[in-house]
């Protein structure tokens, strides 16, 4: 992807498991889908703020392959919401230099959503300020299995690594630097298992509709205090 200038270090790849919409709504006596709607507004504000916070790849978990187990009414409402989000946000994304890429399976999505995905990806293809990857019908294990099946034809480990990205319809991208999960659960729920090998993990107790740009800024501050060693020695001892 395009960099902001010669000598500028690449930004961060942040992944987010946006969990807690249903509980947020139920706590207010509302239908779960009301939480998903408020959650979509939070997504908009996070996407707008991300580039100025030093993020240049943002991968958001919107719908897992296991979320098909939910009641069909909730699933249908989520599919409508994804379509509406893409239709409403594409022009803004172009304006703000946000390239949209949807990762995950496409063969089970409604045709009307597929058309919105194609339109959003085509319209934003030349944008280079932020790569926004939205995971819909996504399973990290399926992605790895898909790549492994193709990988039988690979001569090298590097070729196999590149296939992991292709297997999820996604553009090749970097490993995740920081993974944030809202909603209080401390698990990955089949999200970016390969790309998170050395990600810093942060689990927020707040529910996704209560998450905001200030909390993201706080998480990034905490991330920058951590010593990432990648199997080496701490900075001070490396001498
Ligand atoms: C995350 O919120 C959004 C999706 C999985 C689509 P949930 O809907 O899982 O909310 P909780 O975890 O039930 O509160
Ligand atoms: C993970 O949340 C998926 C998304 C946020 C899209 P879930 O609510 O589906 O995860 P579990 O069931 O608590 O592990
Ligand atoms: Mg949940």
Provide a descriptive summary of the structure in words.
By secondary structure, this protein is of the alpha/beta class. The protein has helices at residues 21-27, 32-49, 72-96, 111-123, 140-151, 157-166, 213-225, 235-238; strands spanning 12-17, 55-64, 98-103, 130-138, 178-181, 200-203. The chain has a six-stranded parallel beta sheet, sandwiched between helices. Residues 17-19, 61-64, 67, 185, 187, 189 line the site of one 3-methylbut-3-enyl trihydrogen diphosphate.
- Please give the order of strands in the largest beta sheet: 3-4-2-1-5-6
What ions, cofactors and ligands are bound?
3-methylbut-3-enyl trihydrogen diphosphate, magnesium ion
Mean pLDDT: 92
> How many β-strand runs?
6
- Provide the domain count: 1
Name the poorly predicted regions. 1-7
Assign a percent range to the helix content.
Answer: 40-55%
CATH class: Alpha Beta
In the CATH hierarchy, the third-tier topology is known as Undecaprenyl pyrophosphate synthetase
CATH-scheme architecture:
3-Layer(aba) Sandwich
Q: N-to-C SSE series? A: EHHEHEHEHHEEHH
Supply the number of helical segments.
8
CATH homologous superfamily title: Decaprenyl diphosphate synthase-like
Kindly estimate the percentage of residues that lie in beta strands according to DSSP. Answer: 15-25%
Q: Tell me the major beta sheet.
A: 6 strands, parallel
Report the radius of gyration as a whole number of Å: 18 Å
What form results from the Cα inertia axes?
globular
Distance from first to last alpha carbon: 34 Å
The helix/strand class is alpha/beta
């Amino acid at each position: 992807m395009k960099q902001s200038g010669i000598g500028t270090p690449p930004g961060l790849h942040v992944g987010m498991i946006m969990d807690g919409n249903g509980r947020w709504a139920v706590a207010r006596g509302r239908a779960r889908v009301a939480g998903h709607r408020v959650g979509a507004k939070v997504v908009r504000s996070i996407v707008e703020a991300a580039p100025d916070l030093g993020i240049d790849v943002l991968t958001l978990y919107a719908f897992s392959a296991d979320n098909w187990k939910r009641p069909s009414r909730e699933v249908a409402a989520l599919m409508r919401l994804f379509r509406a989000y893409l239709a409403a946000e594409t022009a803004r994304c172009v304006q703000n230099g946000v390239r949209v890429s949807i990762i995950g399976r496409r063969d089970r999505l409604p045709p009307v959503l597929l058309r919105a995905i194609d339109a959003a990806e085509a319209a934003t293809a030349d944008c280079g300020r932020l790569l926004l990857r939205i995971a819909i019908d996504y399973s990290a294990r399926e992605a790895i299995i898909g790549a492994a099946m193709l990988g039988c034809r690979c001569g090298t480990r590097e070729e196999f690594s590149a296939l992991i990205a292709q297997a999820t319809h996604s553009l090749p991208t970097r490993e995740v630097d920081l993974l944030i999960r809202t909603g209080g659960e401390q698990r990955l729920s089949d999200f970016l298992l390969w790309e998170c090998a050395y990600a810093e993990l942060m689990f927020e107790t707040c529910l996704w509709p209560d998450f905001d740009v200030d909390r993201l800024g706080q998480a990034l501050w905490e991330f920058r205090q951590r010593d990432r060693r990648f199997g080496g020695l701490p900075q001070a001892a490396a001498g």
